[in-house]
Design a protein that fits this description.
globular, alpha/beta, 6-stranded mixed β-sheet, Rossmann fold, 8 strands, two-stranded antiparallel sheet
Length: 222
């Protein structure tokens, strides 16, 4: 799998497009930056895998492709089952909807019937500790409340594949530990977990193996 970006991306506005056209005429074509180069691996169902590497190694880009947010330039990705993504703790939350509405909306996006979401509803609210505010618009939640709701919704609706990108580095120590404990429960339930983090102790405690990336290339599978 390969993924590339323009080295100087511009906003999708006419003024930026005109500026980019002028620069291209004056300076020549803008070079490509390869974010992923010949990435190839397989993860078995129920396996927990950590993606490690320095900033800019391509870990988040890879996770976004797995989540369907981006598409590879070349190659293909095959995932089987429902995918839940925690690429950013608050991603997937609609701020004009209430906490309750967000839970059911996320469940429907995962393809879960409403009755299945209802079975997990109380556990989600209890973990997120937002019961008094569950019918309040999320835009009025504190940052901590939004973080807890985002994690709870993704982790308790039990996707077949759970993608986690550095989100456990935010919040207080108590919240981080509860999140790690929940990830362990999800793993015991048979969910496949792909975990991106710079927190090597958390990777070691959560993942059975790791994939080391550097400059968009898989350098090793220690």
């Amino acid at each position: 799998m390969w993924k590339r970006f323009r080295s100087r991306e511009r906003r999708n506005l006419l003024s930026y497009k005109l500026t980019a056209l002028r620069q291209r005429l004056e300076e020549g074509p803008v070079p490509w930056h390869w974010a992923l180069r010949d990435v190839d691996f397989r993860i078995a169902p129920g396996e927990s895998v950590g993606l490690i590497g320095s900033n800019g190694a391509g870990k988040s880009t890879l996770l976004k492709i797995l989540a369907g947010v981006m598409y590879p330039y070349a190659g293909r990705v095959r995932l089987e089952g429902r995918v839940g993504a925690l690429i950013e703790v608050r991603a997937g939350l609609h701020f004009d909807l209430t906490g309750r509405e967000n839970i059911y909306l996320y469940g429907s996006l995962l393809g879960l019937p409403r009755r299945e979401v209802a079975k997990r509803f109380d556990a989600i609210v209890e973990f997120a500790e937002i019961a008094p505010a569950i019918d309040r618009q999320v835009i009025f939640y504190s940052m901590g409340m939004q973080m807890r709701l985002g994690f709870s919704v993704a982790a308790f609706l039990e996707p077949d594949i759970l993608l986690i990108d550095e989100v456990l580095a935010v919040g207080d120590a108590s919240f981080q530990q509860r999140c790690l404990d929940r990830v362990q429960e999800v793993l015991r339930g048979g969910t496949t977990v792909v975990f991106v983090s710079h927190d090597l102790p958390a990777i070691a405690a959560t993942c059975a193996r790791t994939i080391w990336m550097d400059q968009g290339i898989v350098r090793g599978r220690p």
